[in-house]
Structures are given as C-alpha cells and as structure tokens.
Amino acid sequence: SKRQQCVGDIALALSLSLWRTPATTIYRSTVYSNFRSMFTHMLARGSTLVTFFSLLTPTHSFQATRAIGRLYSTTSSLNMSKRVLVPIADGSEEIETTCITDTLTRFGAEVTVASVKEGELLCTMSRGIKIQADTSIDDAAKQEWDLIAIPGGMPGAEHLRDSQPLVNLLKRQKQNSKLYGAVCASPAVVLSTHGLIDEGASATCYPAPAFREKLGSSESNNRVVVSKNMTTSQGPATSIEFALKLGEHLYGKEKRDEVADAMLVK
User: pTM to 2 decimals?
Assistant: First the structure.
C-alpha cells in the first residue's frame, strides 16, 4: 500500500543514516526491516517523531521528512491535513527551502515541492546542493493549496518571479484570501514585482539595499512580518521562525508551541 511504501522510505533513510560502515551493504536489508517494524509500532502507539529526527544525518533528513509527510497524508489522523506548496528553481536558497519543508512537515502538513524548471524536477540550489522536486509548477498550478511558501536565494528568486504559472497561482491565492509567504529576496523580487503586497501593508526581506528599495514604504525591519494572509521574513537565519509562523496560521498557536519545543526552539 502507499502507507507501507512511505514507511519503507523512512526506514531506508534512517538505516542509511545510522549504518556508516562497510557492513552497511551486508546488513542493510536487516536494518531496513527492523526500522520499518519499529516505525510502524511507534505510529501505532501514537509516539512522536522526535526520536527519529534526532537519528538522522543532514544528508538524509530532507528525504526522510518528505517521506514522513507522504506517510502522514495517508493516515486518518490527517483527514484535515493542510496542503502546502513550496516552489523552487535553480539558485533557490537551500536552508530556507529545507526549513520550510521540514518544519511544516512536523506540523503534519502535506508539503509538495514544485520545480519551475521546464521539463526538469532536479534543481541545483544557490550553494550547489541538489533538491529533487515532487512535481512541476504546471501540475501544481492545476491544484488548490492552503499555503504557498516561497524560499529566497539568487538567482532563484528571479526564476520564480519569471514563472508565469507560479505568478498566476499566487495571484489566485491572494484573490481567494488564502495564505502565502516569502522569505529573503523573494518578498521584494517576487511579491513586490507582481503587486502581491497590498498598499499600506508591511513586509520584510533580506536587508540588502536593492531589495529594501523594492519594498518601498512597505519595508519593515522585523524578522517575520504578518500582513493579513501574507507572511514575509528576512533570510536563512529567520527561516525556522518564518516556518513556525506559517504553521501557526495553519494549525494554531498550541501546535506551533508543540513543534517549536520539539525542535528546541527558544
């Protein structure tokens, strides 16, 4: 079943993370089976995922959290799961992308990463890390989303700005009074360029003069700024705060505090 496959994805990511010796190849199937059983048992007991996250290396954390999101989206406890779209491009900022996807997955959201590259899902991020998107922006544009969260990075933000399917999706999101947000360069490069910041609304961005000028009178120095259905933030170091605020919009303050505590956010 789809749920079993997701459990398998997580088990494999965890086993690869923990077994770093030449014995990995020999014992991989045993480790995989053990973690699969353990994870299923933990879910059945209603245990948290904190222990599993603490075991992951950075190499596999992205893969495992994406798999956990897919797993949770198939369980009855997430019949009210929120759907989140994270668009990326070559040159998008990898810390921001991962903070958004990882944190919102911990809330229980069904997070989908969409590539704006024509005909290609694999994106090379601003510092050279490669991230495989789940779908294309063309496919994502045909769907409805509870939240669209845009990472920054250059020239990634410019590629996102120039993606007409994404721009149309963002305008529809705003028109329907649904949540959207951006961090780093993207509030200035994407949102401001396309009139997605209301007159008189406050917004923040990466504090470089060129970006701040684009925000004009909307510019704020705060790390995270909420204006109605729009949330903006400044950069890599504020990305967890940004993602927690987005999660709070979707799931409430109590859930936000629960997730923040588990992540050791003070």
Answer: 0.72
